[in-house]
């Protein structure tokens, strides 16, 4: 365990915002966590992974908890599938790379998503037609309400679109130490997402393997999304809004080209990026903050913008969309 006071969080958030934590504690294993929380319980605390889905709008006057333990292990397998446990401090993409290298199918579409394994269940990460909930079997961790180790099966995690029990009811009350996922040993590729269809256009699916999919996803992401190490960002800043069929019909009468994705018979999702672009905000810049020129869902820090500046700009984007479409965008990024 390592304890730091007045600790800079600039390297611990992908926006590169300069925020200071009153206290920052790093833990290397569950035993350290248990010992600490049974003897000290900080009234104000934040569980921080890679900081790839949050925005600090000021200094954090409390204790930041950072779990470092890494590791990937196979806990069981048969001829058809494999169960893998990955520690929370492990890089998410390292887990994907490990799986692809072993030709185990299920998370290759989630390649190059930044952040740690422990952060993945919190917002039920997803991309290119796949979500973590599709393969996750359980989440292991420490329940801070009773200081006991606990295992939550996937069906108790309340997974929804970019949300889970860890983002709502158990926010900062459950410290994830590891996850267990189930992957297939049989070839099962998900290439239904439009960007992947376009990338592999003209190719026979029998000639496409798991490494091709990973490479394709990486190429697509790099072409559309800025590298946080070069341009501060937290990926998609907004969620894609859901509307009912009546609202969709109304919008279609005004915008014949409006894209949408059917969720069920009554619910449809509209790409927030399309709404932002149609509102004239794609590529818009204000000082050191702006909407990325290639991906309207991404707000970027062009220099030394503060978290407050970024949030003010995000609110301006929301207002523009509401004024044009009457739709209120929700933040996907966690505002601290």
Q: Any idea of the CATH topology of the largest domain? A: Uridine Diphospho-n-acetylenolpyruvylglucosamine Reductase, domain 3
Query: How are the strands of the biggest sheet laid out side by side?
Result: 6-7-12-10-11
Total of DSSP H or I helical runs spanning 4+ residues: 7
Known CATH architecture of the largest domain: 2-Layer Sandwich
Q: Averaging pLDDT over every residue, what do you get?
A: 94
Low-confidence stretches: none
Highest CATH level, the class of the largest domain: Alpha Beta
Q: What is the count of structural domains?
A: 3
Structural class: alpha+beta
Amount of helix? 10-25%
What is the number of strand segments?
20
Assembly category:
single chain
What is the helix/strand order? EEHEEEEEHEEEEEHHEEHEEHEEEHE
Could you give a short account of the major beta sheet?
5 strands, antiparallel
Radius of gyration of CA atoms, rounded to a whole number:
20 Å
| First-to-last CA distance | 24 Å
Relative strand content: 25-35%
Shape: globular
Pathway: Cell wall biogenesis; peptidoglycan biosynthesis
Catalytic activity: UDP-N-acetyl-alpha-D-muramate + NADP(+) = UDP-N-acetyl-3-O-(1-carboxyvinyl)-alpha-D-glucosamine + NADPH + H(+)
GO molecular function, one term: FAD binding
Domain FAD-binding PCMH-type: 17-186
């Amino acid at each position: 365990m390592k304890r730091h006071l007045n600790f800079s969080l600039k390297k611990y958030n992908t926006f590169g915002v300069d925020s200071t934590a009153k206290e920052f504690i790093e833990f290397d294993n569950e035993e350290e966590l248990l010992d600490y929380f049974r003897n000290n319980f900080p009234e104000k605390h934040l569980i921080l992974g890679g900081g790839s889905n949050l925005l600090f709008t000021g200094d954090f006057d409390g204790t930041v908890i950072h779990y470092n333990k890494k590791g990937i292990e196979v806990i069981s397998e048969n001829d058809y599938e494999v169960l893998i446990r990955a520690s929370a401090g492990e890089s998410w993409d390292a887990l994907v790379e490990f799986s692809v290298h072993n030709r185990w199918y299920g998370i290759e579409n989630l390649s190059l998503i930044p952040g740690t394994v422990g952060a993945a269940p919190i917002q039920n990460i997803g991309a290119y037609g796949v979500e973590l909930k599709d393969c996750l079997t359980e989440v292991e961790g420490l329940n801070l309400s009773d200081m006991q180790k606990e295992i939550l099966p996937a069906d108790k995690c309340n997974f929804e679109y970019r949300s889970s029990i860890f983002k709502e009811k158990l926010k900062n009350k459950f410290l994830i130490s590891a996850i267990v996922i189930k992957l297939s040993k049989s070839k099962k590729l998900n290439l239904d997402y439009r960007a992947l269809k376009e990338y592999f256009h003209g190719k026979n699916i029998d000639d496409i393997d798991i490494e091709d999919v990973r490479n394709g996803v990486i190429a697509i992401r790099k072409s559309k999304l800025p590298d946080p190490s070069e341009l501060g960002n937290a990926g998609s800043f907004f969620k894609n809004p859901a509307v009912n069929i009546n609202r969709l019909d109304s919008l279609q009468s005004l915008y014949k080209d409006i894209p949408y994705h059917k969720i069920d018979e009554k619910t449809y999702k509209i790409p927030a990026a399309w709404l932002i672009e149609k509102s004239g905000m794609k590529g818009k810049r204000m000082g050191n903050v702006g909407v990325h020129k290639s991906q309207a869902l991404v707000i970027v820090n062009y220099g030394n913008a503060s978290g407050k500046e970024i949030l003010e700009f995000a609110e301006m984007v929301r207002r523009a969309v509401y004024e044009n479409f009457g739709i209120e965008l929700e933040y996907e990024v966690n505002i601290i």
